[in-house]
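Consider the following input, taken from an annotated entry for Xyloside transporter (Klebsiella grimontii).
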Amino acid sequence: MSKNIMQSRHDEYHKLTRGERIGYGMGDFAQNLVFGTIGGFLALHMLTVNTISTATAGFIFLFVRIINVFWDPMVGTYVDKRTSKAGKYRPWLIRAGVPLVILSALLFAPIPGVRGSVPFAFIVYLALDLVYSVVNIPYGSLNASLTRDPESIDKLTSTRMMLANSANLLVYTLFPMFVQMASPKDRSLKDTGFFGIELNLGNYTDPSANYAWFGVYSVYMLIGAAALFICYKFTKERVVATAEQTANVKTTDLFLELKHNRPLVILGLFFMLAFTFMFFMNTVNGFFNQYVVGHSEWMGAVGLVASIPGIAFPIFWPKLKKIFGKKGFFHIFLAMFIVGELLTYVWSREGNARCALACLHRDLH
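Applying the prediction step yields:
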C-alpha cells in the first residue's frame, strides 16, 4: 500500500490525455453496442422471431428489473471491498465483459430446439442482466478514479457521450438495416430514406430471419469485446479508496443514504424517470416503425437523424456549462428532452405518424 498509494495520491489531479479519454469512452461505446442492441431490439426479436408471447416477455423483463433493485447494491459493495494488481475496477471489464458478450449472443442464437423456449430465454436474460451490472457498476466507479481535475472531467464527459452516441448510431441506424439485408423472406427493393438509396431488404420479423439476427449481432459483439479491452488497456486508476476506507461499506448503505439524503432521492427519481422514458422509446421503436408506420426500412434514416445531435453536441458541452452553469445547462437540456417527448407523442397519434415520417423521408432525398 505504500509506494503505489503514495504515487496514486500524488497523481490524483492528472490531466487526462486525449488517448486516455477515448480509451475510457470506449467502455461506453462497448456497453451501448452490446446492451443498447439488447434494449432496443430484444423485445422485437423475442416476440416475432422467437415467437414468445407478449405477456411472457413482459413478465421476464419485469422480474429481472426487480431483481436488479437488490442485486446492484450487492455488486457495488462487493467491488468496493476488493482490489487486485490490475486495480479495483478495471479487471471487471474483462472478468465480466467476456461472459457479457457470450450471454448477449446466446439470446439471438438460432439453437435447434430452444426457439420459443421460455425457460431458456428467461435464464439467459437474467444471467445477462446480472453480469451486465458487474461490468457497468465498476465501469461507472472507474470514471471517478481516473482524475480529480475538473477540466479533464468535463472533457471526459464530452468524449464518452460522443462515443456512446456513436454506438447508438450503429445500433439504431445500421443494425436494423443490416438484419433486413440478411433476412431471406419477402425480399424486395425498398427505399431506405438515405438520400434515395434503395436496398434489397427482407422481413426481419419472420422466424426465418433468426440466422440474420445472430450473424449481425455476433459482429457487433466482437466489436464490443474489442472496445472493452481497449478501455481496460488505456485507463489507469488514480483516485481509489483504501482498504481502511472501504472496510465498513455495507450493502444497506445505499438505502440508509436515501433515507437521509433528500437531494440524492430527487436525483435518483429523475434518473429513474429519464431512463424509463429512454428505455421505453428504444424498446417500442422497432414495433412502431414495423406496425404503425409500416416502413421498417426507414428505421435507419430516423435513427441517423436522432443520433447526429448526440454525437455533435457534446463538443460544446464544456463551453455551455461555463456560460449557463451546471444547473442552467441541466435545465436547458431537460427542457429540450420534454419538448422532444411531447413532439413524439403528437407525431405518434393516428394519422400523424405516417405523415411525420413521410416528411422526414422526403427531406432526406
